[in-house]
Design brief:
The protein has about 475 residues and is α+β, with helices and mostly antiparallel strands. The protein is built from 15 helices and eleven strands. The longest helix has about 45 residues.
Amino acid sequence: MTPRSQIADIIFGSVFLFIGSAAGLIAAIRRSSGARIFVWLGIWSALYGGAQLSQSPMVVETWPRWLQRGAPYASAAMTSLLVVFGSLAFFELSLGRLRQLIRAAAGLGLAIAVARIASFGWPGLHDQLAVYNNLLAAGVLVALTVVVTSSGSSRRFLVLGDSRVLAIGTFLFAVEALYANLSGSMGLATLRILDHLGFAILLVSFAYVALQVVFTNERRLLAVESELAIAREIQTSILPRCIPELQDLSISAAYLPMTAVAGDFYEFIPIDDKRLGILVADVSGHGVPAALIASMIKVAAQSVVPCAHDPAAVLRGLNRALSGQLRGQFVTAAYLWMDLDRCIALYSAAGHPALLRWRQGQMESIESNGLLFGVIEDCDDYPVRSLEIERGDRFLLYTDGVTESENAAGDFFGERKLEQIVRANQSCTASELSNRLLDEIRSWQPASKSQQDDITLIVIDAV
């Protein structure tokens, strides 16, 4: 190896090590699934650079003697792993069955690399495995060249909008690799700088399309986040803008979505300053699909205002309005009608957690459930409970996100914990109790986990 070729190896090896570090830094900064390709590109580039440096006597002579003895093995190990990480980078750009083939190639390449590393003591076996490694690398290169240079295949098997840069880079690298192999077998002089330039062109073309993919994904993510923000505003607009003011009731409502939009919904149907209907609903699932159904409940709730005094009629009307639109999802609901002139509350529910009533130091669970919405379109069985309202009564309507919040041990918050907090805060106002309950739920959940479900909580005090 001439000093000039060694200098070329040192320069290019250092450059490729730097590129590998830069790619790793980009992946760390972006931290998105689309940036994973920069991890593989960085390792791929660093392995190539490290292999060139470990093959240069001028570099190896500067190492400690014990490390010099391992230079050939380090070079062979890094060279063997090139096809593995090159395949993984290609995998991030592929689609469909091609991904399966590339995954298999990467697994086979890793097996060969491990076998080569383990066979350092058997030169014959080591050289034979090197042939297999070269054949695998050639096969991956041929597959890459065929896919990226064919417009039909690139559209079908690659995630790129424009694969021309990758096609040019791959084609030039393939030509250089073919020339290097033919010139070696024909006894012609080979220029190592061409190897470096060919790999650099391939690496740059990969990096270019990787940046395209990452930027496209990030633009798409920003668009989705913008749309979710608009959806959040729309959903917030369908919730009651204010709490109804009734002469003998104090009401507090808390609404905490798990994600940007939620499947929980609540509505007040005030008739006058003595009569009020309160509806709470919970759509199965989370996110946008559940939020769309929650907005449908808002529309359906307007149609049942004339029968607001009859909880069974309200639930029947909502079920009929929603059943044909749920597309396999389900909705639980609870409806509480309060008539302060008669001091009577009427309650019915559709597969919903029980209404809780706190009276004179005791918590009572009031269940009156029919089928949840979306099971049978013409369900008429929504039993109604009649309750007397006394001064000092406290009612709690909520969705299961309150009681089914889990701690680190997997235990539910539960009605017992809920009762303990209500008991400990008897003298608090409805608003203060809501805040205490939400604080307790947050502290119950592990700090490392985000909110586990949508939460809706309505506290009604008869004052």
